[in-house]
Write a structure and sequence with these properties.
- This protein is an alpha+beta fold and 220 residues long.
- The chain has a single domain, classed as BirA Bifunctional Protein, domain 2.
- 28% of the residues lie in helices and 22% in strands.
- It is built from eight helices and ten strands.
- Helix 4 crosses helix 8 (198-213).
Length: 220
């Protein structure tokens, strides 16, 4: 999370866009900049069991990270084709994620386009349990989570693509997790017969980003 913040601050100085892909060394929770984590997470149990807890520079709810692909990027509004005068164009910004899921043979849409969205739409302190209109869903089940921070023309976004989640493990530290969470949330292992290796998933995400926004990458 500290590196994500550093990438955002450096962009404000040099204007060079960055796409970062990363993984987690241990099961972890992140929480939004305005949240009080102890109201939702048992911090003592996390400390005892070596579950990391970190504050994000973005808003949104508490998110569990473990077996997943995580990304962040920073760029200008024009880099992702966001029209002037539009506050946040989630449809345009997140379409690279839809392309990524499509490359795996999955049909992903924004939650507001899914059947029964109005019945499911509700905020929650835990990101996985919340259903917002621009969450990405597969078969009406939410997958992953994304959050943003902005400054003038700069857009910073990070998010997760879960390969699998052990909900019983999560519930040990977040007892407000709904009992029926698996009926409303999905992962790649739930949707695919075989989940590709993470190196392949990361390359597919890079390709989706490059094709969507017509960019070339220089490795750092």
């Amino acid at each position: 999370m500290a590196l994500d913040e550093k990438i955002f601050k450096r962009y404000l100085e040099d204007g060079i866009g960055v796409l970062r892909l990363y993984r987690w060394q241990s099961p972890s929770f992140t929480y939004g900049f305005s949240q009080v984590p102890e109201s939702q997470i048992d911090l003592s149990a996390c400390a005892t069991d070596g579950v990391e807890v970190a504050k994000r520079i973005t808003g949104g709810g508490i998110l569990f990270h473990d077996d997943e692909i995580t990304y962040s990027f920073v760029c200008s509004k024009s880099d992702v084709g966001e029209p002037q005068g539009v506050f946040i164009d989630y449809r345009n910004i997140c379409k690279f994620l839809l392309r990524f899921y499509e490359s795996l043979g999955l049909t992903a849409v924004f939650a507001l386009e899914a059947l029964g969205f109005r019945d499911r739409c509700a905020p929650h302190e835990l990101c996985c349990a919340a259903h917002e209109k621009y969450d990405i869903v597969i078969g009406a089940k939410k997958i992953g989570g994304n959050a943003q921070k902005r400054n003038r023309q700069a857009i910073f976004q990070h998010g997760s693509i879960p390969c699998s989640v052990n909900w019983d493990f999560v519930r040990k530290y977040a007892d407000s997790l709904p009992k029926d969470i698996s009926t409303n949330v999905t992962t790649l292992s739930d949707e695919l017969r075989a989940v590709p290796e993470k190196d392949m998933l990361e390359q597919k995400l890079i390709d989706a980003f490059a094709h969507t926004f017509d960019v070339n990458f220089l490795d750092q």
